[in-house]
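As described in the Methods, two query proteins were run sequentially through the folding procedure within a single session, without resetting any intermediate state between them. The first query and its resulting structure tokens are shown here.
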Amino acid sequence: MLHQQRNQGPVDRDQAENQRKSKRQSQRALDPTPCTAGRSDGRRVFAHFENYSEMGSSRPALSPLALNENALFTRQLTFPHRLIVSLTIFLQKRSLAMSPHGNATSNPLALSSFSDSSPSGSIPVNATAAPSVHNSYLFGDTPAYSFSNMIDFAGDNPNVETRAIDAATGKQRDPFVEAMDQQLSFFFQNTWQIRPGLTLNYGLRWDNYFNYPVTGLTRERPTFAPQFTASQVNPQGITALVNQKAERSFNSDLNNFGPRISLAWDPTGKGRTVIRGGFFVLYDEGYTLNAYRNLYRNPPVSTLVQAGPQFGIPTVYGFAPEGTRDFPINPGLKGSAIDPQYGIFVGTRPNLAGYTQDYRTPMVYDANAAVEHQLLNDLAINFAYHYRHTPHERFVFDANRFNGDLVDGRLDRLNPHYGSITTYTNLGETTDHGLIVGAKKRVAQGWHLNASYGYNHGVDNFGFTEVFNPSVDTGRSELSTNTLKFNSIWDLPLFRGRTGGLATALGGWQLSTILNFEGGGRFTPTSGAAYGSGGDFNADGLRSDRPDLPASDVTRSFSKDEWMRGAMKASIFPRPNTVRIGTLPRGYFSGPGYARVDASLAKSFPIREGLKIQFQAQASNLLNRVNISAVSSALTSAAFGTATSFYPMRALQMSLKVIF
């Protein structure tokens, strides 16, 4: 299916959001320091996480630098019994790009307090509070259209029309949303030096991310949402759901206690070997802004409705008059009155979104261990292992569907009063294992070399193939299983140790290189076609289903040249001939690998004391290697199994910097 949009904002973000969640889980790598645990930055192997007086935080904390830059004032008070309380008010900057259908997050005012009793060995207690105001534009205020193929797209013949309607006017709704969420945390930590060479860190943290409000912040208005629990996320429970007035998205979760412990040990006492390890219980705050968008679109204030052959409502395709946003209203999507029993427009089937009332903040078990040993004066080796497991991860899916729904040609759904019912619950599960072996060596005078090998194995169930059964999508989650990295710094020996004008002009150059090699990420063939047209094999109305496994053995990884020519054909994948899901596992194949060499040549020219000019020439992808960034996985595409986009080729740049 070719999915194109005209005169509209972003399409429904629920599936993309879960894909981003899967990507983030797969990108988490090793952190060699057992007292930190955070999120990785994409292709880097080592995760970096900035902490402010806390250990093993699950979200970016407030650094001393941020406090210095953003502090408004600090006040310290002394109380009886030598209790000292220090309060700091500061602004924590959060900004996102603003677009006509994008979003922006204002700078929330945050309060950080630190209390410490007498300096006689008692444990410091810390607290942070951070309210955030979110501003966003909603999807659907202008119509969105989907097309089955390129011919229909060229002929302006959509097969699905989606838009949001305002109940009061029958026209497009006000797209602006402003809402607030809050975080409150208390934590303590302490360091205990058991004996020389053996140090223990321990602490406890409590987090409360509050339950998201679903009423407006500056534009107060009644908001509706389905009210149900996790035990009702089944065919019987979804069939009985009704849309009703709601003040909160889910019940408060006050049990987010996170103990953490780590140690550092020098077993020989000679400073040549160190063993580190840690275990943490962390909590993930989730994705507030996307939740707001979905909850705000619930009827009856506004409703997201769809037209098309499978919905039994003809589409209306047209353009707004120049200079206006008055797109034609589809009379089949407009209700004349509100049904008080179901909270919908009479004659429509709007989409809903809601949290299970017993939704809990996802709890993460995080553990790591590392050993570093200095073999020689100029050679050190290290070994590190990282484990991360979330048994009840946030999971978002359309619960209003069932296998075989489209057999009669209509999308009836479990609950016939509504369209999709986007359900937020705790059905997700992720597990990540990571291993890194590295070495650091000074090869010769002025030449330093670091090398590391990383192995990652991640599994999650973030898929939507079969409703109420996410286990069928359990599969590989990591973007790259194997990584090999080298980086070196070489102070070139030219005129080394010599003085004079010639040595000053031609000596002192430094060459830096980075070599990065990565194995291929997961690759899963899917069909975006409709039921009966080579896709949606279980006929539940949700496309992008996987086919069956090939009848004979097939290679699961390919070379770059094979991906360039077309590594496989769509015809090798059988399609289910009955109403069922395909047998091909998620992440069954490995995509293209990645290799890149970067280099930098730099030199500083001293002008006088305290003033110098630095010259630097940089080359990214120095060898100009072709690296594939995407391969078509759509079985209905003529380019299936073939590379469709690439990472940038060689880029050169030079710079001059004045340092004083």
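Immediately afterward, the second query was submitted; its sequence and tokens are:
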Amino acid sequence: MYKRFMTTKNIILLIDLFLVIGLIWCDHVQYGPTLNGVGFSVLVIGVFLLAVYRPRWVFWLFVGMLPLEIISLSPEMIGSDLRPYQLFGGAALVGYLIAIVRKKDGFTLPATITADWLLLILVVAGFMSAIFAPLISVSLFQALIVLSFFLLYMCVRLFVRTQRDIAMPAYTFLLTSFVVVMYAIYQNWCFGNGCVHNEVMPGRPNATFPEADWFGMFTVFVVAVLYTTLFFYKRALRSAGKDKGSVLERFSRFYVTKELRISFVIYISLIIVYIALLITVARSAWLGASAVIIVYLIFLTVRYRGFVMMHFVLITGISLFVAYIIIVGFNLTTFEIGNRAQSTGGLQEITVACSSQQGVTELSHIVQIESLEQLGQFDCRHINLEEIATEEQLGSMITTVHRADPNVSVRKDIYTQSFALAKEHWLFGIGWGSSAHFLGTDDNGTALNASNIFLEIWLSTGIVGLGAFLAFVTLLLVRAMRDFFMRKNSEVVAVLTILGLTAIIIPNLFNAGLLLGFIWVFFGIIARKYND
């Protein structure tokens, strides 16, 4: 039993798991020691030496560290962040290239495909656009960052050649993603119980991502991968059930034991991911998750129909209900999830502190306030969620009221400005990282972008970059749909492609989160399938 478990792959999984847990914990408690120049150099040299010896091991470690977006390994003296997955991904790429030079067995350069060239055009367009940027140096630096993500994409193209090569990265990614999801739940629990939570926006977990909306998009992608895993095992076990033996033996062997056990683990995982997704209160992510569920339901309807489809609807409904009950039961969010969902239509519920009960009573008759200044008429004022306990101690009366969601009008203004700016610079764009120069910053001083991935690419790289990215996405979607509906052997990859792109694109219609490691690794995995 021990020897069967302690395989090389399982050891790598455990190492990745403990590394991610350790890095998250050190970041959460702000524990040093921060690496100095010597320590950082030793770390880099050690990782690169391991990559020369075993590049595939380093590649698996790299995939497991993809969710660690806000954790940096570089010392302050460098002046730039180096995420763990960037270090391990770069080392894996160098290790593979060295293995090619040394002519090691199994290490060769893959043939270039259309998808590679399209993403390369996007990268080159960014450098060209920097020439027309208001701050050329800033745009050139951002273009280099985009290039680094393209190199991570090419790293995946080197290591993932067959459908079997996807299994280990998928297991590694899901394992460490589960840790990040649990950390997000812990963050909100800490917020509700008064301990250190490290949330960028109190009450909304961002886990290891810069903001809650990006973490929300990540959880939607995890849902897409889990559904693909469920589809894979359902397909594999149904095929295995056709082996010889009595009907009772086949049912007992595959459906009562293996399929139920695997399905149980996946659905328990989904409940936990749903909890994290709901408490992010990221409406764009909720829309993305809804789209993923609907698309997956369509797959089941086309492939299995009847009982399987109804079973999925029932189990999904139960999973979401259980997730909501756990959130309410353990008080994992201070937001009213139902009201937050309702605010998607343009209304936002805000928390208000009033000096007297009379103010609360009078305010209760108001359907919607026009502005925060109107609260002064009732001797009330808008407060943040973390201020509720303090206000109650001071004797204030706490209530809620609706107003027009300012995010809707702000986002509408941003879209209008961005579209006008993109039309003005339609050919070459204004360069990566230049949006804030024209759009300004929000109330917290955060640089604004176009808040839409396609608009941001057009604005930053011009029509050439946008055309290349649209062609890339369209190419993958069309070929994946062809494979699924024609019942190709690679229909599992087709499901992953369509669900994954849905999970990324739908939330990014309201965000511009392109430079996230897991997105480019996903691009590399699904592009491999469509080798020309």
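Confidence is low (pLDDT under 50) at residues 241-255. We note this only descriptively and draw no conclusion about the first query from it.
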